[in-house]
Design goal:
single chain, flat, alpha/beta, Histidine-containing Protein, Chain: A, 6-stranded mixed beta sheet
Length: 665
């Protein structure tokens, strides 16, 4: 009996031990699988699919063939981010060296007064010591710093040709940077003159080895060009540069582009040098070439800041004046233009000078034709004073061969043009002509008197001025009644609303105030009353104060919109003038309003009733009849001076503006 109990207990312990071993076995297997899969996934994410992963207990084994030592080390690092690095067992191999792609061999040779530096990666098979020794011979005693690294990979076929060429080039250049690899050599160097630059470029190009490309960037000090000159010619349909100078590469490109736009074809050479008279040289040349192209023929010559333009004889005088006037205005400061239109004496005698000033409806003014050189700036300033300064474009050219009194006639014509809304003033040696439209009814008489006074007796001038009522700033204004009707029309669709029990306009009131302000600007200065009204809810005194505060708020809103409000008053009527029944919500809503009414002057009101108050002829007007004519006031009617006399009898909606809830008791 005791033995059976012992065996039973031993059996239980044995079964537990076996079960524990089985569970441990499964647990270890689960841990190994989890570790293996996690490390495998992390390596795949980093692109190392060549690795093989296995796990034994807590240890992780990495196998496979790495493409390089760097890749092998990276695989160990990645696995170390998943498990402890001490648990990673390296069983990886590295791919054979002869199967790895060789690196790019390259070298840079830097030379200046302080010495020569060698930087780069070269093949181990290269005779490096011999190369450095030749560099030291070429250095003429200056120190040579060797920072070259070597790699044991096959040497490219053209490597030796490239290094020999670089070494020969180094001996010719005292300040240089030579960058080379097996197929390309780039040389950057400076020389003392343009002639030396051209010689070195020619020699280096001739000695380039086969199979090696060459890139040269040889610079030389810019020459000093005196004078800084340019000559562009359009002659017999042919376009060319006789001379061309530029101060920068960008300026050269701009000048050549302008020439090609004018018809230049083929190669264009433009020397870059020092001595430019203005940094805006390219801009001046562009405008001069453009003007010559617009004329269609001629020559333009730059000598520093002096410009000489000789047009082709076939160019019309008016076209010449307009183009040269525009060019003279557009040229940058410093540049001085002298333009000539060659003419035979017979043809020149038939060409009378002229001046034209044109005013567009938008207020832009063009001044064209001819003026005295000494008076050109004065005429421009006078025009800018008469018109908007930014709207005047001076395109008249300077000419000292003009009749006596030409400047006076020109100024008088500009003055006359300033009285028009749009038109043209034309000046010739014999006549001044003014044509156009105006909103000033007596502009023709005023212009005639002004021209007679300034030009003197016997002066010939013609005036063809049309009066257009739409241009008249006074006649085109709407009447006060029309303004009141327009405001009432706006009030049919919109409401000025206030915060409850307050005089503050809410956010929805801004748009209607803008519209009302726009209408009042068109109406000019009229006498208006802004009346505030409330419903009957609340105390009468409080409602009167609230209505006044709201009317004043509307007045201040107009002031904030830069309106002149000296003829506008604000009045608060409270609940005294209802237009609807206060016993309904709709009626109270209608009574809460802001009204804009025109105030009729007392003189006008008296004139309107004067005919009703005259004494009858042939029979006296009875007191009863007189009392009938004036007795309305005794029945509670509001007198005319309260601001309602001019109010049109219309529906309440057309004359009122809801203004939000009033203050309640």
């Amino acid at each position: 009996m005791r033995l059976s109990k012992i065996f039973a207990i031993a059996g239980v312990f044995l079964a537990a031990a076996v079960l524990s071993l089985v569970c441990a076995r499964f647990a270890v297997g689960g841990i190994e699988d989890t570790t293996r899969n996690t490390v495998r996934d992390r390596l795949d994410e980093n692109g190392m699919i060549w690795t093989e992963v296995d796990a034994n207990g807590l240890q992780v084994f990495l196998a496979g063939t790495a493409p390089s030592e760097a890749a092998r080390f990276k695989a160990l690092s990645v696995a170390g981010t998943v498990v402890d690095a001490a648990r990673v067992i390296d069983q990886m191999l590295v791919e054979a060296r002869d199967r790895i792609e060789p690196p790019r061999f390259s070298m840079e040779i830097l030379r200046n007064e302080g010495g020569i530096s060698l930087i780069g990666l070269v093949p181990a098979a290269m005779d490096r010591e011999a190369f450095v020794a030749e560099v030291e011979d070429a250095a003429d005693g200056v120190p040579v710093a060797d920072f070259l690294e070597a790699a044991n990979y096959p040497q490219p076929d053209t490597w030796e040709d490239a290094t020999d060429y670089a070494l020969r080039s180094l001996k010719q250049l005292e300040r240089t940077k030579i960058s080379l690899d097996a197929t390309r050599v780039e040389i950057t160097a400076t020389t003392d003159s343009a002639a030396e630059k051209a010689d070195i470029e020619a020699r280096l190009s001739r000695r380039r080895p086969e199979g090696v490309s060459l890139a040269l960037d040889i610079s030389a000090p810019r020459p000093v060009i005196t004078p800084f000159a340019l000559r562009f010619v359009i002659e017999d349909g042919k376009v060319r540069f006789d001379a061309c100078s530029a101060d920068t590469k960008v300026a050269r490109e701009r000048i050549i582009a302008a020439a090609r736009a004018a018809g230049l074809t083929g190669r264009a050479n433009c020397l870059i040098g020092l001595g430019v008279p203005s940094p805006r040289w390219a801009e001046a040349v562009e405008k001069a070439i453009g003007a010559l192209a617009e004329l269609g023929g001629g020559k333009v010559t730059f000598s520093d800041a002096d410009i000489s333009l000789v047009a082709d004889e076939t160019v019309e005088q008016r076209q010449f004046d307009n183009v040269i006037g525009g060019l003279d205005s557009a040229l940058p400061e410093v540049f001085a233009l002298h333009a000539v239109l060659p003419r035979s004496p017979d043809k020149l005698s038939h060409e009378a000078p002229e001046f034209t000033a044109t005013l567009s409806p938008e207020g832009l003014v063009q001044l064209r034709g001819r003026v005295f050189a000494a008076d050109r700036d004065m005429i421009d300033t006078f025009a800018r004073a008469r018109f908007s300064s930014d709207g005047v474009h001076m395109a008249a050219r300077a000419d000292d061969d003009l009749p006596e009194g030409w400047t006076l006639r020109t100024l008088a014509a500009i003055d006359a043009l300033s009285r028009l809304s749009n038109g043209t003033a034309w000046v010739s040696p014999d006549e001044v002509s003014i044509t156009g439209s105006t909103g000033e009814a007596d502009a023709g008489n005023a212009i005639s008197g002004m021209l007679s006074e300034k030009l003197g007796k016997g002066a010939r001038f013609s005036i063809d001025v049309e009066y257009v009522e739409a241009l008249d700033p006074v006649a085109s204004l709407p009447t006060p009644e029309e303004c009141e009707a327009r405001i009432a029309e706006v009030q049919k669709e919109h409401k000025i609303t206030f915060e409850p029990g307050s005089a503050n306009i809410d956010a929805n009131g801004s748009d209607i105030m803008d519209q009302i302000a726009d209408i009042l600007r068109e109406c000019g200065e009229i006498t208006l009353e802004i009346g505030g009204h409330t419903d009957s809810q609340g105390r009468e005194v409080m409602n009167q104060q609230l209505s006044l505060s709201r009317a004043e708020t509307v007045l201040n809103e107009l002031r904030m919109r830069r309106m002149l409000t000296s003829s506008i008053t604000a009045v608060g009527y409270g609940e005294s003038r209802p237009i609807a029944d206060n016993d309904t919500e709709e009626g109270r809503e209608a009574n809460r309003r802001i009204e804009f009414k025109v105030i009729v002057p007392e003189e006008a009101a008296e004139d309107a009733t004067e005919g009703q108050e005259t004494l009858a002829t042939g029979g006296e007007t009875s007191e009863e009849q007189a009392g009938t004519d004036t007795g309305g006031a005794g029945d509670g009617e509001t007198p005319a001076d309260d601001g309602e006399a001019a109010q049109t009898d219309a529906s309440p909606d057309s004359e009122t503006q809801e203004d939000g809830a009033d203050e309640q008791d």
